Amino acid sequence: MQTEVVQDQGLKRFFNQVYLFMAIGVAISAGVAFLLNFLWASQVMTILGQHSWLMWVVFGGELALVLGLSHAQMMSKSKMVSYFILYSVLQGLTFTIIPWVYDLGSITAAFLTAVVVFVTMAIYGRLTTKSLARSGQITMMALIGILAATLINIFMHSSTMEYILSYATLIVFIALTAWDNQKLKVMYQQATTTEGGIPVDNLAIWGALELYLDFINIFLSILRIFSRNN
């Protein structure tokens, strides 16, 4: 009984660390986007207008950092923290264009809705006793299909397809939020009972990145839907 209490306390501390890192990441991204728009909006617009390839460089950097963070078992905690912060900064650069496309009311409503949806599914994923592994695998396959359809739509420029993909993406990342929380719970238990596994601190940062991506995609999907409906 005492061992179970200690494990529960350790799991609680672990998830607190995960959510803290995730919140820091979201705050950094939002802060970078806000500062760029508040202080240097015209300069940023001019630079991106003249050098649109810079956004592809940012996307490439984000992908490289995600791949780097996936090797949590072999990295030091300080290096993982540095990668995570840098990723959040780069993501903030891409968020700079959001206020140019959407009005403040839609952004605020989408963000608050995303918070409610994310928290609800995070709680469900942590507390449910039903295994979500099967649904998680199906959802990942659906995500691959969505990515393929999104690439095709870059050339088709179909607003209807974009609208459908927004709903599909929202559903997929709602399901992934629940699955990722349950998956982190299982991975924590494995990390604390198996020698040579991922250090718990590293796992927390990796988990924060997973949930960060879930939340951001929920937010962007809702934002596109709200904007279309308005």
UniProtKB/TrEMBL annotation:
The keyword tRNA processing does not apply. It is found in: Membrane. The keyword Transmembrane helix applies. It holds the Pfam family Bax1-I. The chain crosses the membrane at residues 18-41, 53-72, 84-102, 108-127, 139-157, 163-179. InterPro entries: Bax_inhibitor_1-related. It is a multi-pass membrane protein. It comes from the Bacteria. Keywords: Membrane, Transmembrane, Transmembrane helix. Signal peptide: none annotated. Belongs to the BI1 family. PANTHER family: BAX INHIBITOR-RELATED, PROTEIN LIFEGUARD 4. This is Bax inhibitor-1/YccA family protein.
